[in-house]
Specification:
The chain is mainly α. Helices cover 50% and strands 8% of the residues. Helix 4 packs antiparallel against helix 5.
Length: 198
């Protein structure tokens, strides 16, 4: 009986020691290492890729979209997060299927609004359908180009000036193949606001 108890303790000691070692590595050493490397090599990204205004106040993040509805702003993708649009605590798509009347009516209404507001007969899908996360900060370059005339008119700016600002804020596919040409809406709208104050 005593030998069996000693055998169990001998077997248990290395298992507990290995568990403790792996816990220290995965719960303390690894997270602290990743945190330190992130802070050193990617200081802005490790802080949330925050965007500041001219006064140094945080106005958002390059990673989280915001809702813009005014005529003088480029409109973001629709957001399907619960509670309110672009709710970062509730990242999710709508989970509505293609046969859902609610989804079909929502897309139809957003399509009509986009067409009427921008004087176009075609609407890119990202202008009327939310992303999987509901937090996408980008719109396609095509969506931005279709909104440029409305924004220029509402701001009293030349269309060429607005198009230059759009082009300056266009992000291109990674390695030339991954993704599509896109524009961060918050950065674009901030640049437009800043250009009016200079």
């Amino acid at each position: 009986m005593k030998d069996r108890k000693n055998g169990a303790i001998k077997t248990l000691k290395p298992a507990v020691a290995l568990f403790a070692l792996l816990w220290v590595i995965t719960a303390i050493i690894y997270p602290l290492t990743v945190f330190a490397v992130g802070r050193i090599l990617f200081p802005a990204q490790s802080q949330g890729s925050l965007i500041y205004d001219k006064n140094g106040d945080v106005i958002g993040s390059t990673l989280i979209g915001q809702s813009f509805t005014g005529e003088k702003y480029f409109w973001s993708r629709p957001s399907a997060t619960s509670g309110f649009p672009y709710n970062s605590l509730s990242s999710s798509g709508s989970n509505l299927g293609p046969t859902s009347r609610i989804l079909v009516e929502g897309v139809y209404n957003r399509t009509r609004l986009f067409m009427l507001a921008n004087g176009v007969s075609y609407v890119p899908s990202d202008a009327v359908m939310s992303s999987a996360s509901g937090l996408d900060p980008h719109i396609s370059l095509m969506s931005a180009q279709m909104q440029a005339q409305r924004v220029a008119k509402a701001r009293g700016m030349e269309i060429d000036t607005v198009n230059r600002i759009v082009q300056k804020h266009t992000e291109y596919p990674l390695f030339g193949v991954l993704g599509e040409e896109r524009v961060n809406v918050l950065l674009l709208n901030q640049a437009l606001d800043d250009s009016e104050h200079t």
